[in-house]
Amino acid sequence: MDVREQRVRFVVAAHRREKSMAELCREFDISRPAGYEWLRRYQQGGVEAIAEHSRRPQQSPRRKDEAMQQQVIELRRRYPDWGARKLRVLLHEQGVELGRNTIHRILLRQGLVHAEDRHEMATQRFERSRPNELWQMDFKGPKRWHQAVGPLSVLDDHSRYLIALEAVGSTRSELVREQLESVFQGCGVPEQMLMDHGVPWWGARSAGGMTELSLWLMRQGIGLHWSRVRHPQTQGKVERFHGELQRALERRRVLVPVAEVQEWLDEFRFEHNHVRPHEALGMERPAGRWRPSERRYDPQPRRWEYPAGARVLKVDSQGKLTLAGRNWRISGALAGEWVEVVKLGERMQVYYCSTLVREIDLAIQRSTMVERWIPLPNQ
Q: How many CB atoms neighbour CB 115 within 10 A?
């Protein structure tokens, strides 16, 4: 007989009370606890309740663990350039609670951790106190890129928000200005910008390094700063982003048709700003800390208004100023422009808009280029 028929006969015999429970259990070759369990089930649910139940556990910890591990692996394969800390945030949002070390061990077992992924976290970080106080700008190197010049990146120092990521394909001044005009119209104008000594914002052959593009930025009231020569750490945030972009290109094996390059960059920019958690932000996303600048872009700015009572002079056609009975070379790029001269003892500081461009020492009769242009205080 099948199991259910055997149990039905046992229940019927037990209800007739023709034999004791002990004798009845020996006859059916079961233990007394099993006999009482059959009776209890029948009383609660009838014949169906005394059918053979599966002994399979209702919850399988191992199967659950395997499912969570698979989620970790799938996320890592989707974002092969992300580490355990960032994956943990996305897993938490999917309802999976795993510690960073647990995620890291899963990645190690699957061979998904690369030697270059293991690095010490920065012990000290520097950032501006509010959005749009300083933007960092640079071109990425051409490694694994289809053009001789990598994408142009503009990054907010405070929030790490990626303002722009454009496949300009050239360092020509007019192309970069076109991109910046679009950025300024959509995001506003920053207070200051930080760049390296590269074209088109720096001219090695120009006195003071001034170029048409840098002067245009100054006329927008933007204070310009420059990283130290051969010291990329000064632009650490945009350099770090370029490392992030490089790892994505290498790990994700990006083979994007030339016609679709900008579309891919737009998607990556969205991921950086809205999806990818950032350790420097306490695992927040940059979009949560950034907001557009309140300073509006003026395509036709009026002549710069220097403070009332300031000494304002016009640079001659040779790029020179006459001060203390002598002609001083300022910059050919400023020919015909108005500058402010501030006297401090035996020194004179020359400002163009809000940026210090020259310092003249009357005592030793020397004019010094201010390589890292400094904006006026409180501007």
A: 6
